[in-house]
Design brief:
Layout (H helix, E strand, L loop, with lengths): L1 H6 L20 H7 L2 H5 L7 H12 L3 E6 L7 H10 L6 E4 L2 E4 L6 E7 L14 H10 L6 E7 L11
Parallel strand pairs: 1-4, 4-5
Antiparallel strand pairs: 2-3
Helix pairs in contact: 4-5
């Protein structure tokens, strides 16, 4: 993150460490708020507070950086909880007969993915559900400028014999 600050002095960074401070899973009141146009227009008090705060963080960002491990071929549940809060019909996306249309302004999203196995390239030995899922989820709210950066496979020295 400090690279951004060095490149653009005065840059402010919002850091959300979902591993250290996991978000709660969506709750029943959140589902009630999204259940119909009527409840969406007048949601139960407090039901969308966390969602709205997270969406505002995304809206305020000029660049978004996501660092995630690949857990069991896809994203960890803490990242899914964040996605569940920011993908909101009528606020960040709208449903149309031809699919989801994003309502947020596009901006660069850099996604670093770490995996103990290989999921891209010639050495790929496991499926990759993370990249297409995360790409589709972000695109559905308007974040289409995405760059995936992968760190995959065990280091070369694991299993090597030392003399």
């Amino acid at each position: 993150m400090f690279i951004f600050q060095a490149a653009a002095p005065g840059t402010s960074i919002i850091r959300r460490d979902l591993g250290a401070e996991p978000l709660p899973q969506t709750e029943a009141l959140y589902a009630v708020a999204l259940a119909s146009p009527a409840t969406l227009a007048a949601p139960p008090m407090g039901s969308l507070n966390l969602s709205e705060a997270l969406i505002r963080e995304v809206e305020a960002a000029d660049v978004i950086v996501i660092g995630t491990p690949m857990h069991n071929l896809t994203i960890p549940s803490v990242l899914k909880a964040w996605i569940d809060q920011i993908l909101r019909v009528g606020r960040t996306m709208k449903s149309t007969p031809s699919g989801k249309v994003g309502m947020l302004r596009d901006r660069p999203v850099y996604i670093g993915v770490a995996s103990g196995g290989f999921f891209t390239g010639e050495r790929a030995n496991q499926p990759d559900f993370l990249t297409p899922y995360l790409s589709l989820a972000l695109s559905s709210i308007g974040l289409k400028t995405q760059q995936f950066l992968t760190l995959q496979g065990p280091p070369y020295w694991i299993g090597a014999r030392h003399r």
